[in-house]
Amino acid sequence: MIIKDKIFTSFAVNDLQKAEDFYTEVLGLKLTKNKMGLLEIASGPGGRLIIYPKPDHTPASFTVLNFPVENIYEAVEALEKKGVKFEHYDGNIKTDEKGISRAEGRPSVAWFKDPSGNILSVIEE
């Protein structure tokens, strides 16, 4: 079969150093630089995320990375203390004053952006 069992994902940023600072200092992730100088985040057995520079980067209009958390309120509070601003929606998706969506039958989610405008979320397990 052409598909291997170790798959990975990637997304672009417009400034690799700002991304490295944000993902390590604000989000507390452990990054490594691969052989090509790109940022990598290990995710479970064999999984990984690659962050690469693209000077003319245009952020996607959808969530590119989700972080499962045990308590969404505590996660939002902790990230706000580090300067993260949460998105607020009042359409098909509605968020409260903290930026948390608590739709019935769905997990609670709060969205925020990285320095390149990529949409990320914390989602309560």
From TrEMBL:
<feature type="domain" description="VOC">
    <location>
        <begin position="4"/>
        <end position="125"/>
    </location>
</feature>
<dbReference type="InterPro" id="IPR037523">
    <property type="entry name" value="VOC_core"/>
</dbReference>
<protein>
    <submittedName>
        <fullName>VOC family protein</fullName>
    </submittedName>
</protein>
<dbReference type="InterPro" id="IPR004360">
    <property type="entry name" value="Glyas_Fos-R_dOase_dom"/>
</dbReference>
<dbReference type="InterPro" id="IPR029068">
    <property type="entry name" value="Glyas_Bleomycin-R_OHBP_Dase"/>
</dbReference>
<dbReference type="Pfam" id="PF00903">
    <property type="entry name" value="Glyoxalase"/>
</dbReference>
